[in-house]
Amino acid sequence: MSYRIIALDLDGTLLTPNKTILPESLDALAKARQAGVKVLIVTGRHHVAIHPFYQALALDTPAICCNGTYLYDYHAKRVIESDPLPKDQARRVIEMLDESGMHGLLYVDDAMLYQAETGHVTRTINWGLSLPEHQRPTFLKVNSLAEAAESATAIWKFALSHGDTRELQQFAERVEAEMGLACEWSWHDQVDIARAGNSKGKRLQRWVEANGYRMSDVIAFGDNYNDLSMLETVGLGVAMGNADDAIKARAGRVIGTNLEPGIAETLYREVL
């Protein structure tokens, strides 16, 4: 079967550990676009942290950001549709973070905010500085996440990272139990907290159907738990070889790691 839409997670999937796209993937995706296939980025990232990849792929489609919290049009530079986190819930998450001594990133409007520089923050800062100035994400230190949340127009998500993954999991379970928010693992040491009901799969389906397609027309690639909502609902969900075994077991197919040209090979087999 030839699929008409390609949905791509970024980190751990399309991107190598060095945050680059394999030349084989770039070539195959360019050929797919030339053949009229739609290519969409479906990521946990903020739209300000996607510029180098969106431009490298030369896309004309909107990006699904922050695990499906919103759809962003890069050409019009605006959010098309969104389901942000209510401020009272964001306020409570920040209180819980303070109580537990855990740090988190706050994704709002057109910026990512942090109060304390942890290892994850340092890595993001250094990655941004490695980019040309026009592609650097807006990543700002604030004195108070609570004050920043109050002044934000839209709160997309929290990204929590912690060296003790068990403690991180316990915090996420508490947030889910007490507040009913969506807590999804987007990396081996990162949990994202967003409004309940938001997911990559749900936002992808809305875009697919709004453009006259069906989910069976989609081939999707992912590597983590926040990708399952799309991997399990598209025509073919493909898990990367570097994914957890639990992800692989629920995908339609498993390919090589994000250091191998499995995405390109699959596209030549299934799309081109």
Explain the overall architecture.
The protein is an alpha/beta fold and 272 residues long. 37% of the residues lie in helices and 22% in strands. β3 and β4 form a beta hairpin. It has a six-stranded mixed sheet, sandwiched between helices. The chain has a five-stranded parallel sheet with strand order 2-1-12-13-14. It has a three-stranded antiparallel sheet with strand order 3-4-5, covered by helices on one side. It has two domains: 5-82 and 199-270, Rossmann fold (3-Layer(aba) Sandwich); 87-194, Hypothetical Protein, Haloacid Dehalogenase-like Hydrolase, Chain: A, domain 2. α4 packs antiparallel against α6. It has helices at residues 10-14, 23-34, 51-57, 87-100, 119-129, 145-151, 165-179, 200-210, 228-231, 245-250, 262-270; strands at residues 5-8, 38-41, 63-65, 70-73, 78-82, 104-108, 111-114, 139-141, 155-161, 182-187, 190-194, 218-222, 236-239, 253-254. 46% of the residues are buried. It is globular, with a radius of gyration of 18 Å.
What characteristics describe this protein?
alpha/beta; Hypothetical Protein, Haloacid Dehalogenase-like Hydrolase, Chain: A, domain 2; globular; 37% helix; 272 residues
Topology:
Layout: E1 5-8, H1 10-14, H2 23-34, E2 38-41, H3 51-57, E3 63-65, E4 70-73, E5 78-82, H4 87-100, E6 104-108, E7 111-114, H5 119-129, E8 139-141, H6 145-151, E9 155-161, H7 165-179, E10 182-187, E11 190-194, H8 200-210, E12 218-222, H9 228-231, E13 236-239, H10 245-250, E14 253-254, H11 262-270
Helix pairs in contact: 2-11, 4-6
